[in-house]
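re: ur question from earlier - yeah i can do the single chain one, its not a big deal. heres the input i used so u can compare w yours
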Amino acid sequence: MQFQLTDEQRALQDAVRSYLRDRFSATQVREFYEQPESDGAPAPLWQALGEQGWLAVLVPEEQDGIGLGVLDAAVLAREFGAGTVPGPWLGTVLAGEAIRLTGSKEQQAERLPALAAGETKGAVALVKQGSTPVPTSAPATSSGGTLSGSLGLVEYPELADVLVVAAQDGLYLIDPKGAGVTVTPTTALDRTVRLGTVTLDGAAGERLEGSTPELVQRLLDTAAVLVANDLVGIARRALVDTVEYDKTRVQFGKPVGSFQAIKHDLADLHIAITFAEHAATYAAYALDEQRPDAQLAASIAKAKASDAADTATAAMIQYHGGIGYTWEHHAHFYFKRCKRLQASYGDAAQHRERIAQLVIDAPGTQDEVTGVNPGGSSGVQGSGVAAGAAAS
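and the output i got, formated as tokens:
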């Protein structure tokens, strides 16, 4: 099976790369990094995200979106990871996807066009901090249309105009500035994001009426896959920059990249990143096609991407020598972003546990991890691509 991006997807990839190279390169990221007191969403960048349609990627055309799929969003996420791009893109896209999947026609018409245009910003709180990303890990509790709970590590809650919150009975829309909602900023080591804790104390919630465990799980898997693509973007850029540096860094009269131990290590890393890239790409495709192995593919992608990015960013610091440990070098941008995203929507260990459950559980039984029947044996065998990625 040959699997590759379409011409349109490659054009999208090139457009994002070109924009970031010309308008928001490492120089602009560093300027942003040096301003921790800012709101975390550079205005020119956010305007470009809206104008280019990169916020509208999953929004249907009838709601002023461009009606593409998770694979197209994954292309964007990968480039944003490679560029360590700040801003609430992920939260806004996921909020829109939650409304698209589970909202009524009225809710979609009211919310989606503004999210697609960047006129409103979104945030999501879908799982308890540190929990496996499944519907039973909802961070809030609902009672009589009001919600309560402490939602940790929410991205950009202070900027959000709408917050999508998961409760035990489905998804709700919350006004982050409404009564019963308290937002407390949280200092983040990774300055390409702004985090906060949202405390709900009887906050009014508007339920997304189509919320079902199956659709909530699909949303969680979409989030994990987009984060996985961000991580492989980080990993690939870290490797490329390290190779380029070690071609010119000289010790004992030779480029250090010519030393056998370093060459072999970087070659192994290239293979690991390539596997992770393929897994992340296939997982997005599986979600778009609603393949029976989509849940398995999502967990494979997140686990492999987390491992590859962790190894790549650590190697970037090590193989840049003394300069790699300094604030003045950009290696720490990738390292810190990687550390944050490794735990986002399930860490590697949690996803490996989920892979084991999906593969080993008896066909046709209620899946203990997701709380959703994966569809019998087809739910664990559907693709040789996913099975091969799991074994690699």
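The longest helix spans residues 213-248. not sure if urs matches, ping me
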